[in-house]
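Nudix hydrolase domain-containing protein
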Amino acid sequence: MAAQKRAVRVGVAAIIPDAQGRVLTGRRKGSTGSGRWAFPGGHQEFGESYFQCAEREVLEETGLDVRALTTVALTNDVFQDEGLHYVTIHVKCKKLNPDQEPKVLEPNKCEGWQWTTWAELREILGKPDGHNQLFLPIVNLLLENSDIERTIDSGQSLQ
């Protein structure tokens, strides 16, 4: 049996702030990072832009209509135990209808959605088992971007 070639994949995470500055997070289920809090998102498909990917994944997972606005960060996410390696593109998105709330449209992949503050995410990360409560792209985003809220609020971009 030939050895399978490992590849780096592209993941897209949608950061969707609400009017209070909280961001949408969901507890993953049934795949890599199961039981951990993550942003909506997924794999970028061939021929798809990362903005298109963010908008598609959010709609598929939550039913929210969003507009991808800007790329705010990249993280290098190596899941050692699973033998997976992703570059995750974190995309700021805006809800097109501010009154619309997320729904669990993929119950086999997400336990539920909630609005979470950056302070709450940092508090989780600071716990002894915090790295096991947050999905690796969020861990790396917080560790590598100490002022991510300001970056998102200011509309700064990597582009």
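thats it. The longest helix spans residues 50-62. The first strand starts at residue 8 and ends at 15. bye
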